[in-house]
Amino acid sequence: MRKLSVNQSIITIAYILFLWLPAVAQQPVAYRASAPKLHDLVHTALEVRLDYAKQFLYGKAAITLQPHAYPMDSLQLDAKGMEIREVALLAAGKHTPLQYSYDSLQLHIKLNKTYQPGEKYQVYIAYTSRPNLFKSEGSAAISSAKGLYFINPDSANAGKPVQVWTQGETEANSVWFPTIDKPNQKTTTQISITAPAKYVTLSNGYLTAQHNNGDGTRTDTWKMDQPYAPYLVMMAVGNFYVHKEKWKGKEVSYYVEPVQAPYVKQLFGNTPEMMSFYSSLLGVDYPWNKYVQVVVRDFVSGAMENTTATVHGDFTYQNNRQLLDENIWEGNIAHELFHHWFGDYVTTESWANLTVNESFANYSETLWSEYKHGADGGDYTNYNAAQIYLTYSPEDEHKHLVRFDYDHAEDLMDRVTYQKGGRILHMLRNYLGKEVFNKGMHLYLTQNAYKTGEAQQVRLAMEEASGKDLNWFFDQWYYGSGHPYLDMQYAWDEASKTQTVYIQQTQTGKTFTLPFAIDIYVNGKKERHDVWMKTKADTFRFVLAAKPQLVNVDGDKILLAKKTDHKSLQEYVYQYFHAPLFLDRLEAIQQAAGAQQDGDARNMLVAACKDKFFRLRTAAMDSLNMQLPEVRSAALPVLLAIARNDSSTLAQAAALNAIGRTKDSAYLSLFREKINSRSYSVQAAALNGIAAIDMPMALQYAGQLEKDSKDLLSWAIAGIYGRSGDTSKLAFFSKQLDGMFINRKSRMIAGYLLLLSQTSNADLFKTHFDNALTHIRDYKQYKAQGRFVPLLQMVHDKKEAAHLPAQSAQAATAVKEMSN
Ligand SMILES: [Zn+2]
């Protein structure tokens, strides 16, 4: 599964689509064992009929089971919030009623006899699923858990498609069909869906039959003959355009709303290449009979890896102009696909071990990036994920990666399981070497195919592949918490030609065992020293030919740690030009950014504006202090060239933003030229540049551009309208916010409130202020509404100063509400 985020990232908007939430105070909870396997699911045959008016599903389930290890005379099935109409034993087409009781969560069935381990039997259940009557508890990762969702079922919202879709993980599929809703079960399935004939249906596996019922409905039958976990069963029904491709003879399709058809190939077109890449990396060909991705409205998570039929939320949609800047969903497309090995083919045995699904899927984004966009691309992806763990979640330092003491299963869907877990795999790959690590993944997959796995099985596979004991690594990273805080100091002794590197682990608590490289650059040549740090403070001494130009601790830049490095500025400058990695250069850019009066640092920063990797060009340009005359004169020729010619529109935009910070009217013609770009980012930068020079002209442009504006451009327009005081622009905000995904709303809301703070019209204020509050309330589910308090306070203060007591009282109420 892929979560969503309301937090913005360090470098790019690519990462605004994650969601990470403050943790709630933890109560000590009991050990969460894997679910006992009393019976095995074998096969699940469903016939379901959708009732859009009632938002019900009428189902008939024929479930084949067998006792797992011991003779059994009773069976419990998960069946949440249903109305149960019949429970019977099914044999030779005959229904024999079975005694049962039902407590609205589970069916307790008395079987007709004692069945022996491995002895198959079939139960039949007729039921009505009523998802809206079931009181579900959502979570940070999944905003609801009712399993089955009817979107706009009565077509009340004219512009919105009518859809039905499901979301199972963690244990919500038992709202729409009875099952043993645990990740350590696997079943084959046959699902017959009766729905309005005008719609397309989708489920797991291949379509075996379509029958027109002559009453406006059609019954589609989907069959999946490879076993998979109940939480991965899915169904989607709606008016979808289907784009079909092939990979090694298998269907690869993308289901989108018809209006999105022109962009579908550009959006998902890397999928076959991803399938080839992961198949060859893992030594296991994509193991399922097809791969479909469907985009649905109002999805309750980011994306979900249902076997052969991944669901993405509608924030996936990007038009060709957005895709010109970047495909912000590429990592998620890779992530869900990779789950088809780590998650679907081998499934976590328990939610406590979710790392074997999600850490791998998270890391697969780095692997894909590295393959597709080179070493810098992979390192960038890896770095961003590391920052999300290190920056956003101090409370996560106390959580084990494998966690048996969780409160809710959904709690595992956090930065520890995803971002930290992915970085732990990155360290493991570095320690073992890429080929051995890949071999370890291959062994884990082949040894546990169609079964379940836990972290210990990953350890055993990696140990088998490498011939190394890995207990220390797994104890430290999987069954322990936290990360090291490293303080690095250096001393050079000319007399003895000795370089001393003094490293301290300053975190409280445990000591980490860390293998890493120290690269020492002497006379322009790099010497690598592989070292182990096993104590809280370690001193490493190297006798060298001459004083080194650079000592680069963690030469492969793999350690998941908070680092304080006491290198000199000169060393960082040297590092930029001589050390090869993305992070070597980024660290240097970050240091130089704080020392732009220094000539060497400044020259390095300007050189970095031309770095071979556009993310670093962007980082360097973003950091330029254009108020310093010496920076301006050194950087402007470079920036002007980039603004016009860079192959990356994001780099062009960064150059324009830097030029715009001069507020120099000499560049007005450049901005007016670039405002015609196809890239929203470039247009936004140009518009901001114009606004800094000539506000009325910017307002005029904003009026022309607002019809086709998205992302950064919408935000730029929001900023300009917000400052304009022109209340006729309030409609722009309400319209934009309506169709906007929550992660993109906050700057729009900021502009909205700024503009509202300037109106004295009571009716306008009330209507739009209430509307703004509706959007702010959406942040409550992520406990992120507090970020708007300063803005609301600003509205209040301005209203008070303007002697508008009714409006100021409204704002005060809002401040109070959002402060809680
Ligand atoms: Zn996932």
Short description:
The protein is α+β, with helices and mostly antiparallel strands and 820 residues long. The chain has 24 helices and 29 strands.
Q: Can you describe what's shown?
A:
By secondary structure, the chain is of the alpha+beta class. Among the domains are: 39-312, tricorn interacting facor f3 domain (Immunoglobulin-like, Sandwich); 345-477, Neutral Protease Domain 2 (Neutral Protease, domain 2, Orthogonal Bundle). It is 37% helix and 24% strand. It is built from 24 helices and 29 strands. The strands form seven sheets. An eight-stranded mixed beta sheet has the order 5-4-8-2-1-11-14-13, with no helix packed on it. A five-stranded mixed beta sheet has the order 16-17-18-20-19. A hairpin with a 4-residue loop joins strand 1 and strand 2 (56-67). Helix 4 (330-338) runs antiparallel to helix 5 and helix 11 packs parallel to helix 13 (614-623). 49% of the residues are buried. Residues 7-26 have low confidence and may be disordered. It binds zinc ion. The site of zinc ion has 6 residues, from helix 5. Zinc ion binds next to helix 5.
